[in-house]
Amino acid sequence: MTTSLIGRRPGDARPAGYALVRRGRASFLVHRRAAVAAGAIAVLTAALCVAYLCLGERYVAPTEVLNVLFGQDSGADFVVGELRLPRLALGLLVGAAFGVGGALIQTVARNPLASPDIIGVSQGASALTIGALTFGVGSFGVLPYFSVAGGVLAALAVYLFAWRRGMHAGRFVLIGIGVAIALRSVVHLFITKGDYLVAHQAQVWITGSLNGRGWDEAAPLGWTLLALAPCVVWAARAQRNTAFDDGTATALGVPLHRTRFGLALLGVLFASLATGAAGPVDFVALLAPQIARRLTRTAQIPLLCSALLGALIVVAADLPARLLFAPVELPVGVLTAAVGAPYLIWLIVRGRTGGRA
Amino acid sequence: MGWTTAAAVALLCAVLLSLAVGARHIAPGEAVHVLLHGGEGEAADIMWSLRVPRTVVGVMVGVALALAGTAIQGITRNPIGDPGVLGISQGAAVGVVLAISLAGVHSLSGYVWFAFVGAAAASVAVYAVASSGRGGATPVKLALAGAAINALLISVIQGMLTTDAATLDEFRFWQVGSIAGRDAALAGRIWPFLLVGTALVLSVARGLDALALGDDVAKGLGQKVATVRVVGGIGATVLTGVGVCAAGPIAFVGLAVPHIARALVGADHRWIMPMAALLGPVMLLVSDVLGRIVFPPGEIPAGVMTALTGVPFLIAMVRRKAVSA
């Protein structure tokens, strides 16, 4: 029977490029190329993490780093375990959150340029956070709440303003850019209102920096992201349904508006959470999903790869940010912007702007 | 003609308001009296040392930015041309930061040249990026190129500021865009540049009219298209440099004013430009006056006020499909 055509059909019907995984009664499809890419990025990130923990003002040998990681006594406990590891963890989490957030927003907007730092989400988060910082409303512990609120509010505003009998990608991006500029000037206003110390703090914060941050920021961010993980699983499935044009999707019974709204909200939430923890690290949310899609060649932006790539980018940018001008540490956002802006320019020159992602 | 008179009256009112309103209120009549006859006392002191220079600088910056915006919109044939949106102001800002931190220049008159170079480099870069690739320089591509260059330049600025705390303290008050605390000497130094820029931009007014019909028609009408673009571009850059140098990056004056002027006097640039030159200072001074009275005793810088009033304008314009995205 196994050789008959009928027996083979279910296997033959699977889409090209996918592998079928069966565990008992459960089965699911895995995109082969995406799986390989994710594995490769993960290995690369792990290697980079070890390098990140080794290098710095004081060089620590890789074996010692591994000792610290696995909880054995080592002379480098303080440098690696107390200084570098928390910062690395925060970088990974922030990068992953930006990657997922950017991927979801780009999916909904069907436009690679609708990333949170261009359409004003990051600026909204910054404005409210710096406002809280300047007027002494919040201690550092509650700043993330302000960021999330600011990001969501800014996104809602842009969405409402751009909605006119439907959504148009160009209109959305133009209004987003305008709102971003206005919010940036509000940020500058708050900076001049504060005293010098707050100004310096805020200046570092709005560039996006991991300097002097650690478990206090990483732990809440990690737990929140973990809590949101089921939503991401939902998003990965829902994402596929929104890929059709509106007519087809509606005919297939997809609750299109609700799905899109959910995806966008989730994306904004991720981006604002990351902004709250480390400030707006520019362009990670733009770069990671686009590179991920080019690596995997899937029709949709792959969420897992975006998250991994986001983490990779932030860590890869923070390493030179720490080392280049030591002992002065650059904010990591300076480096991501320095790399990301030329990439955006390249996207524009290539003419992939107005169309679909 | 009627509109021009109305705009002139509006400018006069704005100037009077700017002289009269503030932490120490001065009656408009008293302000006029002090202005015409000199006079002694506290009111006269405030007028001559604070309000008059501030107002004069405000008028100059308003004229500069409005004309720069008009020229940019005409040259790029693009309704969202604005020195702030397109990153030209940010280019001038980078020039200023470089001047402060590397060249050790600390006077506003010293900034000017650095601001010019920065503005010119940024405007060339933005236009080159936006016009390459498919479809030429559409509004969305221009805005995106501006956003990209903006982000790049901001990262340069941030990088320098975080490594250099002294520069930050000098720069943070400049970058927000304000005409507060400017002295009369500044106006004395920037007026030649303002004059040159204005002359350059006005000289291409007819060329811009022809350009609005498309490059081919403009050539057919006997205009040297490249010359018009280059001369107008230099003029706009000089004007942006003047505006940014004197007041910091003030966005949206150059965007909104030309549109209002066009709505009032039609498509002829020889009418639009004088109109814009009248309305630009009105918008800037009114924003500045509003900023003085919203949260007393503190002041909101004019740059923030213009951004907050300009964004609704941009949104309305984009929604009305005045911009073919």
From TrEMBL, chain A:
<keyword id="KW-0813">Transport</keyword>
<feature type="transmembrane region" description="Helical">
    <location>
        <begin position="118"/>
        <end position="137"/>
    </location>
</feature>
<keyword id="KW-0472">Membrane</keyword>
<feature type="transmembrane region" description="Helical">
    <location>
        <begin position="34"/>
        <end position="53"/>
    </location>
</feature>
<keyword id="KW-0812">Transmembrane</keyword>
<dbReference type="GO" id="GO:0022857">
    <property type="term" value="F:transmembrane transporter activity"/>
</dbReference>
<dbReference type="GO" id="GO:0005886">
    <property type="term" value="C:plasma membrane"/>
</dbReference>
<feature type="transmembrane region" description="Helical">
    <location>
        <begin position="143"/>
        <end position="162"/>
    </location>
</feature>
<comment type="similarity">
    <text>Belongs to the binding-protein-dependent transport system permease family. FecCD subfamily.</text>
</comment>
<keyword id="KW-1003">Cell membrane</keyword>
<feature type="transmembrane region" description="Helical">
    <location>
        <begin position="330"/>
        <end position="349"/>
    </location>
</feature>
<dbReference type="Pfam" id="PF01032">
    <property type="entry name" value="FecCD"/>
</dbReference>
<dbReference type="InterPro" id="IPR037294">
    <property type="entry name" value="ABC_BtuC-like"/>
</dbReference>
<dbReference type="InterPro" id="IPR000522">
    <property type="entry name" value="ABC_transptr_permease_BtuC"/>
</dbReference>
<keyword id="KW-1133">Transmembrane helix</keyword>
<protein>
    <submittedName>
        <fullName>ABC transporter permease</fullName>
    </submittedName>
</protein>
<feature type="transmembrane region" description="Helical">
    <location>
        <begin position="301"/>
        <end position="324"/>
    </location>
</feature>
<dbReference type="GO" id="GO:0033214">
    <property type="term" value="P:siderophore-iron import into cell"/>
</dbReference>
<feature type="transmembrane region" description="Helical">
    <location>
        <begin position="88"/>
        <end position="106"/>
    </location>
</feature>
<feature type="transmembrane region" description="Helical">
    <location>
        <begin position="261"/>
        <end position="289"/>
    </location>
</feature>
<feature type="transmembrane region" description="Helical">
    <location>
        <begin position="169"/>
        <end position="191"/>
    </location>
</feature>
Automatic annotation (TrEMBL), chain B:
<dbReference type="InterPro" id="IPR000522">
    <property type="entry name" value="ABC_transptr_permease_BtuC"/>
</dbReference>
<feature type="transmembrane region" description="Helical">
    <location>
        <begin position="84"/>
        <end position="105"/>
    </location>
</feature>
<feature type="transmembrane region" description="Helical">
    <location>
        <begin position="142"/>
        <end position="161"/>
    </location>
</feature>
<feature type="transmembrane region" description="Helical">
    <location>
        <begin position="111"/>
        <end position="130"/>
    </location>
</feature>
<dbReference type="Pfam" id="PF01032">
    <property type="entry name" value="FecCD"/>
</dbReference>
<dbReference type="InterPro" id="IPR037294">
    <property type="entry name" value="ABC_BtuC-like"/>
</dbReference>
<comment type="similarity">
    <text>Belongs to the binding-protein-dependent transport system permease family. FecCD subfamily.</text>
</comment>
<dbReference type="GO" id="GO:0033214">
    <property type="term" value="P:siderophore-iron import into cell"/>
</dbReference>
<feature type="transmembrane region" description="Helical">
    <location>
        <begin position="300"/>
        <end position="318"/>
    </location>
</feature>
<keyword id="KW-1003">Cell membrane</keyword>
<feature type="transmembrane region" description="Helical">
    <location>
        <begin position="55"/>
        <end position="72"/>
    </location>
</feature>
<keyword id="KW-0812">Transmembrane</keyword>
<feature type="transmembrane region" description="Helical">
    <location>
        <begin position="234"/>
        <end position="260"/>
    </location>
</feature>
<dbReference type="GO" id="GO:0005886">
    <property type="term" value="C:plasma membrane"/>
</dbReference>
<keyword id="KW-1133">Transmembrane helix</keyword>
<keyword id="KW-0472">Membrane</keyword>
<dbReference type="GO" id="GO:0022857">
    <property type="term" value="F:transmembrane transporter activity"/>
</dbReference>
<protein>
    <submittedName>
        <fullName>Iron ABC transporter permease</fullName>
    </submittedName>
</protein>
<keyword id="KW-0813">Transport</keyword>
